[in-house]
Input
Amino acid sequence: MTTIYDVARRSGVSPATVSRVLSGRRNVDPELSEKVRAAVAELGYRPNGVARNLRRASTNLWAVVISDIENPFFTSLVRGLEDVAQTEGYHVVLCNSDEDPAKEAAYASAVLTEQMAGVVISPTSTAEGVQQLDEAKTPMVLIDRRVEGIEADTVLVDNEHGAFEGVNHLIEGGYRRIACITGPRRVSTAMDRLAGYRSALRGAGIRFQKDLVRHADFREAGGFAAMESLLDQPERPEALFVTNNLMTVGALECLAKRGLRAPDDIAVVGFDDIPWADLVVPSLTTVAQPTYELGRTAGLLLKDRIASPGRPPSTVTLRTELHIRATSAPKKP
Amino acid sequence: MTTIYDVARRSGVSPATVSRVLSGRRNVDPELSEKVRAAVAELGYRPNGVARNLRRASTNLWAVVISDIENPFFTSLVRGLEDVAQTEGYHVVLCNSDEDPAKEAAYASAVLTEQMAGVVISPTSTAEGVQQLDEAKTPMVLIDRRVEGIEADTVLVDNEHGAFEGVNHLIEGGYRRIACITGPRRVSTAMDRLAGYRSALRGAGIRFQKDLVRHADFREAGGFAAMESLLDQPERPEALFVTNNLMTVGALECLAKRGLRAPDDIAVVGFDDIPWADLVVPSLTTVAQPTYELGRTAGLLLKDRIASPGRPPSTVTLRTELHIRATSAPKKP
DNA sequence: CCAGAGTCAGAAATCGATTTCCGAAGAATA
DNA sequence: TATTCTTCGGAAATCGATTTCTGACTCTGG
Output
């Protein structure tokens, strides 16, 4: 490893001067400057980032803590974040929490010991890591979900409105007996989307029926089980609204297994888009979230937070978009 | 920030002793040890990872340089890698090269200045970054593609055999006029899969026809354009083999646009699986790669390489798996 | 012509942990 | 009992860059 001292020796100046030439933070005699550059080139010198980080007391790393990169919702979000990070000179460290508060906490811990510059996090149910990071005053942006009692920059989508639109679309298609599979009660998105479902029913004067609602775990298996449970009731629902992509897939698998087809046997609208959803037949109607934009917005907020730690936290709410495809075709008379 | 000196003062020992207690690298009097632990707990001390990294001359970061995390192929691969990284105490830095050699080089540069412990990389066509990293003797694992002249640990799939199986499956279904959309000539996977296509034809005594082959860019738009060009020929192919997932999607879009249906108008087999491929109708026949395993294997190789930098590089080749679904149904008489 | 302000290079301190080196004390061996 | 080995704690060096401080020098204005 060639160090800044080697460069200094070679070019006949002090290490301080080399540092100044390379950082450009202060004027340096052009002649010395030239010598330094020459020495850097000759020696193939590359500054040691770790040493710099120690002195500066921070790194150029952002952590993104999400439940699972294999969920397309997060994949595209991470891409949006990474694009901002790159233009701002940061690198993104990927952390899969798998909805496990302990893992979240472990990653939060790592963020602190590794002195990362900031965190973008989708909180797990108990948000242990979020608490830690908040106490340590780490620049942090919450995505997708709110956390009670934490004041931090947040990027959300308008879950209630999106769910309203999705369910209302089913109602307009002539469906009235509409089931809903949503997520855990402790997760804000699950409750917000359920609220949208209820308000759409209310708007159409349809009575809310508890036995048409299931709370599952936002995973494929959970969606499958919830669908089974709904179908095992005496009267089958005419339509179904599912509040995330994995559970939608699980529900569709259950329908396929039972030989039921969408939309003829049961109409379906899912929250979250699915990659290439319109390629396939019957294509799935979804309430699409602007996932790339979510990540990008989080990145921009994080950048601003790092630049001015003092300013009051802001919340950005992005709009969902209803993608009407085949599984929600109007009810046949 | 509380430092190791604060802990030392509080517990009445030297910083060296604190370090020894916490790292467990040397025996320390149980009584002192206890005092140190107490002080750590009281002060909420957390070691500074950056300082440690400087002293140790390496970090606990792995970079994964891939073309695009939004491609499901890489998504699942990254997940496999991250799982290994976590159990081995590393963190994964995500780098999207977008197939751009300049971006790859920039990330390679960052790997070196940030003293990352190792790299898992899917090389771009000119592999500029790979050269840099190789010269610097950074622990490195190549995935998905080989690079001429670089001796490094490599994880591949048996592309030729996979392609052979896929095309052979079409032949067995009675198709003979089979087109192929593959990737750039400089990319090893594109050529290997094309070779598999040719060898399947040869095995069945079908003459290879240059005008049934297209080289595109492994992206959606490229697949679309290639499909158009194939369909614009006087005689339409009976079946199609596409050598990656994005181009398959592009080709399917083109078919949809022209009102052609798989498999009735043209049978289709694609390389790379697509998420939830069997959920949708008509479901797509694919040559599936064990993407999670690819990432996992790369992680294990990287771990070993870091542990023993001297040992000769090894190449692991994983098997593909033919997933027969609807788009390759046998030809109707 | 001199005081005060401004510029710039270099010496040295600094970031915070790890690790080498040294010396003291106790254990083991002759 | 004398000598050698071990064990273990602390002082200090170390990793490599950044930054503060110091002092030499130049420039400006009275």
